[in-house]
Structure formats: structure tokens, C-alpha cells
Amino acid sequence: MKIIPLAKNTVTYSCNSYLLLGDWNRIGDINVVIDPGTDDSIIPEIERHSTGLGKVPVDRVYLTHNHFDHAGSIELLKKRYGARVFAFTDMAGVDELFTDGGFYPAGDDLLEALHTPGHSSDSVCLYGRSGQLLFSGDMQLLVRSAGGAYTRQYFDSLLRLSALRIETVYSGHDVPLTSGVREMLRESIAHVRNSEIVGERP
Q: For a surface tag, which of 37, 51, 92, 131 has the fewest beta carbons within 10 Å of its beta carbon?
């Protein structure tokens, strides 16, 4: 799977968007955009890339959550490419809901949708097992010190991610993290354990 970070709009606040293609752009590969952002600024970028002869440049849009800086442009991509939009919660423009633990095609690979509430109630991370990579959206993976309060759901989400083999993280707003992911998650869990955890497990 090829992962192409698309440049963010420098004028309007937006998120990191990613174009996922198959390594060879075969006709059966599924071209995906993760979190298209606020407006149509990624469309010229998408169209500068070779997305496969005779293929739709974007078959699907996967949302990590429903905040406007991640999802504001879904109708523009639907209109331009006829893309189907997937998210964990129903909202205008969403065609299909993710199932927690379900597998979804991306390029020539599969991503697992993991419900990881914390930043928002509908947050998902998308995990590529074969590449040991994670699209984390706005899930907070780094907790620098103990103190403050965290929800039980957020803590459980951290625990869930820490059980995975993750070598690379593609986040919603930062540069890709390519080393030390497991160590970072262990430290974050330790800091949260030594903070206030509010709420009960469902």
C-alpha cells in the first residue's frame, strides 16, 4: 500500500489528509482518502498523482471522527468522485458505518477500524496489521506527565492500542511517528494510571 500525505491548507485550519493507493494501481485496488479536511484544497493534489488508469481517483473516504476540520469536505469529494464515505457515527454525507473491529479495503491492503473514544465519542483509529501502521486521527497517544483527569473510555482506548504491533503512526495533525511508538504508549498509560480516571466501564 502506498501512503501519500496530502499537504494541508495553510489558510484554513484543517487536518492531515492521506491518499492510500495500491503499490501497482491495479484495477481491483481501492483508492482511499483518510480525513479529507475542511475544503477542496486536496483535490488538485490528488489529481497530480497517478491513481490508476481507468480508475476513480477516490473510491472511498474514511473518517477518523466527525469534527469539521476532518470531515468538512466530504460532500465535495462525493460530488467530484462519487466516493462512498465511511464513519463510526451517522451524519450528513456518510454512506456506511464502520463496525468496531471490521476490516476495510485500502489500496491493496486492509485496515481495521478500532473504536477509540477519547477525543470524541465516535473516534476510530485505522490499523494496518501487515504494515504495522496506525492512522490515529486526533486520538491522544502522548501523555507527557501524570496529573489531571482522563475518562475511562480514553484509558481503555490507550490500552487497546498498546496491545497492537505499531511501528508507524500517521496522525491527524502531526508529522508521522516512525519510532518509539510502543514505548510512548507504555509511558502514556503509566502517566494516566497515576492521574484521575473518571467514569466506569460500560
A: 92
